[in-house]
Amino acid sequence: MPQLNTSTWLLTILSMIFTLFALLQLKISKHFYLPSPKPTLTKLQKQQTPWNHTWTKIYLPLSQSQ
Amino acid sequence: MNENLFTPFTIPMMLGIPITTLIIMFPTMLFPTPSRLINNRMITIQQWLTKLTSKQLMITHNPKGRTWSLMFISLFLFITSTNLLGMLPHSFTPTAQLSMNLGMAIPLWAGTVVTGFRNKTKISLAHLLPLGTPTFLIPMLVTIETISLFIQPLALAVRLTANITAGHLLLHLIGSMTLALTNISLFTAFITFTILTLLAILEFAVALIQAYVFTLLVSLYLQDNT
């Protein structure tokens, strides 16, 4: 039976190991399945205007009208 | 007669150099690598089928067993594609070679057993003794279970080899019988031809089923051991 001809066994096994463990797995690992979209928390906006931190009299317009 | 019947299973040589490596590597060319967000139809269909089969295969495993999912899905795709390509007339089927199937079965089975031994030594050893055996039967049962454990890789390899080889041989024999009968009686040739068609359909099914069985059994051995 030609399957029992052990002279080619090493070549067959080595080429199979290379194909199965290297080539095919590299190809299938590149399959990309999009994750389902999830809502993310937006970060709180940083205060852009530093001059509004201290409350001064000039912000009260009614107090200024004399 | 013996030589002629088994010649489709000899390693193909071209000018004295075995070209098995090219034939074994050929099915990987049929699975193109996806490179875009939305790919062409063939890649999309293959990706969809891969996702479907891997979900079906890995749903029964715990997270530790699911690390093997890339291995299982590539094993399944390799065996399926090789078997289906072997259905083409005059083609060489690598999975009909005992060497290749032994090379697939023994490392995978050994991997599952070693995983079980390293991580859960007591439980994997306890698998060797079924529950509820009478005390005086224990030595014999442990021997029997050990033997059945060591036969698993051999059974995996020989099952795949024998199924594919026998199927191809049957197709070859019944095909030549149909051809020989056309000169004798056309009606019997027609009956034989229907048998041949049914057998070809069965062979396609066998190609897929064998891949599934191989992968399923290895995953079962993994489940025992994770």
Q: What attributes characterize this protein structure?
A:
heterodimer, A: 66 residues, mainly alpha, 2 helices, rod-shaped, B: 226 residues, two-stranded antiparallel ribbon, 2 strands, 70% helix
Can you walk me through this structure?
Chain A: Keywords: Acetylation, ATP synthesis, CF(0), Hydrogen ion transport, Ion transport, Membrane, Mitochondrion, Transmembrane, Transmembrane helix, Transport. The complex is a heterodimer of chains A (66) and B (226). With 66 residues, chain A is mainly alpha-helical. Chain A has a domain of 32 residues. Chain A has two helices and no strands. Chain A is rod-shaped and about 110 Å long. Chain B is mainly alpha-helical and 226 residues long. Chain B has eight helices and two strands, in the order αββααααααα. In chain B, helix 5 packs antiparallel against helix 7 and helix 7 runs antiparallel to helix 8. Chain B starts with a helix and ends with a helix. In chain B, 28% of the residues are buried. Chains A and B meet through helix 1 of A and helix 2, helix 3, helix 4 and helix 5 of B.
What's the N-to-C terminus distance of chain B?
A: 49 Å
DSSP, total strands of chain A: 0
Q: Tell me which protein chains meet in the greatest interface and how many residues each side has.
A: A-B, 28 and 37 residues
- Rg of chain A, please? 36 Å
Specify the number of helices of chain A.
2
SSE-based structural type of chain A: mainly alpha
Q: In angstroms, what is the radius of gyration of chain B?
A: 22 Å
Assembly form of the protein? heterodimer
Helical coverage of chain B, percent range: 55-70%
Give the N-terminus to C-terminus distance of chain A in angstroms: 114 Å
Biggest sheet of chain B, strands in spatial order?
Answer: 1-2
| Form type of chain B | globular
Tally of alpha and pi helices of chain B: 8
Q: Would you tell me the overall average pLDDT of chain B?
A: 86
Output the helix-strand order of chain B. HEEHHHHHHH
- Helix percent band of chain A: 25-40%
Total number of strands of chain B:
2
Task: Based on Cα principal axes, name the global outline of chain A.
Answer: rod-shaped
Summarize model confidence as the mean pLDDT of chain A.
77
The succession of helices and strands of chain A, N to C, reads HH
Membrane topology (chain A): Single-pass membrane protein
Subcellular location (chain A): Mitochondrion membrane
InterPro entries (chain A): ATP8_mammal (IPR039017), ATP8_metazoa (IPR001421)
Transmembrane segments (chain A): 6-24
